[in-house]
Records
---
Amino acid sequence: MNASQPFDRERMRRFVDKFMSAVPHLNALGIGFADSGPDWAELQMPYAPQLVAYPETGVIASGAIFSLMDSAAGFAVLVKRGKLEPHATLDLRCDYLRPAEPGKTVIGRVECYKLTHRIAFVRGIAHDGVPDHPIAHVAGTFMFTSADA
Amino acid sequence: MSAGAIAQLPPYAAMLDLRIGENVVTMPFSPHLIGSPGRLHGGSVAGLMEIAANIKVRAALENEPATIKPINVTVDYLREGAMEDSHAEAFIMRIGRRVANVRVEAWQGDRGRLIAAARMNLLIAREAPQKAT
């Protein structure tokens, strides 16, 4: 902890929001930056009509949650590595624990808990306000794709 | 499911602009599917594959009223998705009273060069319990 941290976080938020607003699929889903730490990242996806999969209830598509979690996982890998080197999702498993509540913003929080020379391991949850009451759980791996990885 | 069902696609599937064929679901390339320069976002391919699985299970249930809910999905990304049309076909491994086990393949120009493969388990909540006969 030091005095410059809140400033850094705000700077980080602006940097990441600018970076993410250039990613078309994140824009289409309304996904934005929420928070990050040394080995974790949090993205948010506000409720929006185009995310709905079940019009009769207003529940959003699991596929949209998958996109949120894949993006948050990729971001967690970047912060853990501490450099903007390219990577690709190798595999990602998502358990859909319950439907997201219509109208609520979904938060995806993913931790990169292990790095090897070529692979990053991630795990995380999605929730809509209460982390202890998750919507989804993910686990997966990323591979580094730069020539020297 | 026939092409006539396109008009009834729910909003998320409509946003992906999915085309529902006899066995294959197609997601035409569109700039809003891009995740990094020159590549599709893996999440859009996952969304395509989940919906292909869902449609396959729905078709297998014929007209029986039931709600199909995703339990989980595991996606293996095999190649990067280029800025081209993507296709997915789902195969039911087993369908029971309560659960369907499905695998899904996704490809672009060449059917033999998969860009992703998925396994998905779906819960089948049948609305009316079957009467013993």
---
Amino acid sequence: MTFLSRSLKLSNLFFATLLVALLSVAGLGQSASADEVGTDQPYAITGNVKLDGEPLSGVRIFVKGGSYEAETVTGADGRWFIGIPDTNPYTVTLDETTLPEGIAVVEGGASDEVQIGKSDRVVKNFFIGEGVRNSSGGVEQFFTRLIYGINFGLMLGLAAVGLSLVFGTTGLSNFAHAEMVTFGALMAFLFGVVLPLPIWVAIPLAVIVSGASGWLLDSGLWRPLRRRGLGLVQLMIVSIGLSLTVRYVFQFFVGGGTLQLPGFDAPKIPIFGTLALSVIDMASMGISLAVILGFAWWLMGTKTGKATRAISDNPDLAAASGIDVEKVIRTVWIVAAGLAGLAGVLWAYFRPGIKWDMGAQILLLIFAAVTLGGLGTAFGALVGAIVVGILVETSSMIIPSDLKYVGALVVLVAILLFRPQGLLGRKQRIG
Amino acid sequence: MNWEAIINNTAAGLLTPTTLAFALAALGLAMHFGFAGLLNFGIAGYMAIGAYGYAIAVLTFGLPWWAGMLVGMVGSVLFSLLLGIPTLRLRGDYLAIVTIAAAEILRLLFLTTAFEDITGSADGLFGYNSRPDGSGFANSNPFPPGDYGFGPWTYNAETIWVILFGLIVLAVCTFLLWALMRSPWGRVIKGIREDEDAIRALGKNVFNYKMQALIIGGLFGSLGGMVLAAYSNVSPGVYVTSLTFFVWTALLLGGAATIFGPVVGSIIFWVMQAFLTNILPELANAGILPVSSQQASTLRFVLVGIGLMLLVIYRPQGIFGDKRELTFVK
């Protein structure tokens, strides 16, 4: 009996830990913040921040390399410790804005590359003293952030136009759009790394399979549900259920870790001032632009595109004019899923890394983009996405970087307050 | 397969602080969605406000536990006002997106290192239940140390105190919801759910009624967060959007527009979770399911998602609901 009751008390404790542990895996961009992070990693970078022999506390240190990112703040003794997963080179950065006034890194720069040597630890100390911060000018910094923001925004735009088209033609706020983004990245991984095909074959293949998944989703789930006459709210909750299901199916197959596509660590080429872009970054922007232009031509120039816009405006009138609404909606799902899949591949390079919940991390940003531009308008979604992308990247110059998504979400709330129809939407849409 | 342990752990899921916290949050959602027709997808934010408000008031301002909980409730009222003023005039799905975004903003604010001194950042908050000056929740425990209950429902003194507290709060809230919904006020609320314009034509201020419903439901949600906080630590990783979706699943399971549906739905949700948590890894280890035990524990969230879809498609009114009460879901 005593054994039984003890095991049961354990089970009670288990419930709390269950909730904490299993809900925390779904977190968004969490960063640890003790003076020791990643103590469970096999290797570590450590250091000691001192000014004239006096330890400095509260100085922020970043470590970044490959898909791994960690940051910590020095303790009262000035020490810091960051665990790293492998022996690849890592960039260690000291955040000069957290140093006292008039103090800066005087030698070697505030950012340096560090690699694990023979032991499993490596020490990186910064030489700090009175001096002018070697940070680039505000304008230059802003320009760099702006380019990153446009890159991020174009990628968001690919996902946002699809979400907006689906909303425009069917009225569905599709929460599972995030999983369509992740799906594209996972398919690129399947074709480019598991099989492995050359990446220039793997990515188009991933986009095609994503498009096919959109067709499957529409004919297997959404069309039958529309036929059943489910309401929009019901459909929205179904999409939430689908999102949960698919997200955990991804986790089932790939686990909680991060996967990398080939070429993710391509070297950054300095272009102008602090701006450095890798070949992948430039290709990503080029591809986004080309695809978006192609999409615009499809929407404005082709018959299907015209039919899509007609249905967005007034489905009943469109049907009465002889447009095959179901056929157009099917096409919209294929296009939306294909674009989301491509966005997933580019997001995997931008982060970098593929994770089971990578789509869910940006779902609200995609919604923010769509709402900002005007729900149901394709080009509005694009404009909204670029604004959101630039806002997210540039806002981290002013607010802490772990709050950079907050700015975009506040804009989402504010736009609904002042202009609920969005930038390019028309007033009647909010009904 | 250890069937005795599986059955015992499953039965224990019937009454835990987590189940009670879920029931309270689902009750708040029933007020929002089931009775007032408001699509609130930010219930995790309300729970976070309750938990953080209580813990911060005790830790940072040194208030006794009951005052801390009042602070949490005031916080949830403020959150409702902040959220409701811009959004209650919007259509349903807009409200859903705004509430989900607001809850996420809150969580990021609790998580950021910028306010680490107050919020504890990623580590969360702890040590507020038991205070050295005897003003903490655990210090007011009337139960002397020892074991209470029987069979699968045996609890230590700390847990039984949280459970008793949670049960009292839940009973009061359930009674309040029942009393409100059979009052004239409740009839207006249900009328707004069915046809907002008709109620406006009767001369009622629809916005005010909606705001009152948002505040009351939000209070229930924040109390749920406090029960959770009274039992374990406050951790930002708990109050994610998935928590909102799980509470929704529990609510829809029991029936959105019912009084006891949210409570029963939460119990079913957590008994099922306890059962699956115990049986799936056992099946994997016994070689019946061809998966690793890690994958087996992922499976039960897949099942939550599938369950949510099937529920909404085939029985949107839930187990106890009346289909005529849910005609507003269009």
